């Protein structure tokens, strides 16, 4: 029994030392420099983002929200997790929470066409059609060939003239 314990402790030490060596890079002056962690979209904590996207695509917005929220809690700097969380909140009609999540996405990622398209959708759902139009037009200026943005602008135009139908759903990325 003691031999097995000693072997396990020895193996644990070897793994620990080997793991530490993998994190450190030698500097010119003989010191150590620690490697930076991978980008946030490549961390295991963003497994929740992948699960959230699957649930969102399947129309399971509650489960999507739960997965995106877990991803955000695990990695506060994951823009995809915040964007998915905002979109899920929109679908659950939790607009104040969605708005807070969109602010975080803009802070992390900026006003990209995808972010602006989804934010324009958010404004459409809230009935803020003027803000939706200006946001979607800004998105289209940044990405003129984006069919999602174009479709949302067409849909917004039909909503503005009172032609909204129950099957009309704004498009997201």
What's the gist of this structure?
With 173 residues, this protein is mainly alpha-helical. It contains 8 helices and 2 strands; from the N terminus they run H-E-E-H-H-H-H-H-H-H.
How many beta-strand runs? 2
Order of strands side by side in the largest beta sheet? 1-2
Quote the beta fraction: under 5%
Mean pLDDT: 78
From N to C, what is the helix and strand string?
Answer: HEEHHHHHHH
Largest sheet: 2 strands, antiparallel
Termini separation comes to 58 Å
In the predicted model, the low-confidence regions spanning at least 5 consecutive residues are 2-37
Given helix and strand content, the structural type is mainly alpha
Number of helical segments with 4 or more residues: 8
Question: Could you explain the architecture of this structure?
Answer:
There is one protein chain. This protein is mainly alpha-helical and 173 residues long. Among the domains are: 45-94, no CATH class; 111-161, no CATH class. It is built from 8 helices and 2 strands. The protein has helices spanning 2-23, 47-57, 61-74, 79-91, 95-109, 113-125, 129-142, 147-160; strands at 24-26, 32-34. A two-stranded antiparallel sheet has the order 1-2. A hairpin with a 5-residue loop joins strand 1 (24-26) and strand 2. The radius of gyration is 23 Å and the shape is globular. The model is unreliable at 2-37 (pLDDT under 50).
